[in-house]
């Protein structure tokens, strides 16, 4: 990526990077037998450009300029197809509203994501300590782990530096009471 240069040069490089990474997602879709329509391409581009968690209404709003009158059923169908292929992941949250984010490192193998609770920025976390948890469960619970889901949330570096932003509520280690 260019550090200096005109705004036009930086924008051109950003478009090239976005197109190159979009090609990986398109290839993944084709491998899974999905049709790659202009709307599907536009949704992928929207997520790549935003780099944040988006709900279906935000995705629909982002598509409106290019596809007048695009409906929520179409948006949901595209989002679900991208999620089935592992391109999009769903974000769990307290209000139970469905939100999605794009996995920017499809070729990294198993990894997790950090979601900023303030701005919605998503960053890759190329680390998983699940082997230790699996051994603990086996040894202490005499059980077998078959899968896991880990969503890491907090404030990204930019939001963490901003004065006046309240710290998120501390997470409890055990959600059950009593």
| H/I helix tally | 6
Name the CATH superfamily classification of the largest domain: Winged helix-like DNA-binding domain superfamily/Winged helix DNA-binding domain
Average pLDDT score: 79
CATH topology of the largest domain: Arc Repressor Mutant, subunit A
Sequence of secondary-structure elements: HHHHEEEEHEH
* Total E-strand runs: 5
Q: For the record, what CATH class of the largest domain applies? A: Mainly Alpha
Q: In what range is the share of β-strand residues?
A: 5-15%
How are strands sequenced across the largest beta sheet? 4-3-5
Secondary-structure content class: alpha+beta
Give a quick account of the main beta sheet: strands, pairing sense, barrel closure: 3 strands, mixed
Radius of gyration, in angstroms, nearest whole number: 19 Å
The helix fraction, in percent, is 40-55%
Q: How many separate structural domains?
A: 2
Account of the 3D structure:
- The protein is an alpha+beta fold.
- It has 2 domains: 1-107, Arc Repressor Mutant, subunit A (Orthogonal Bundle), CATH 1.10.10; 110-178, Dna Ligase, domain 1.
- It has 6 helices and 5 strands, in the order ααααββββαβα.
- The protein has helices at 7-31, 38-50, 56-63, 72-84, 130-141, 157-161; strands at 88-91, 99-102, 112-116, 122-125, 152-154.
- A hairpin with a 5-residue loop joins β3 (112-116) and β4.
- The longest helix has 25 residues, at 7-31.
- The termini are far apart.
- Residues 1-19 and 170-178 have low confidence and may be disordered.
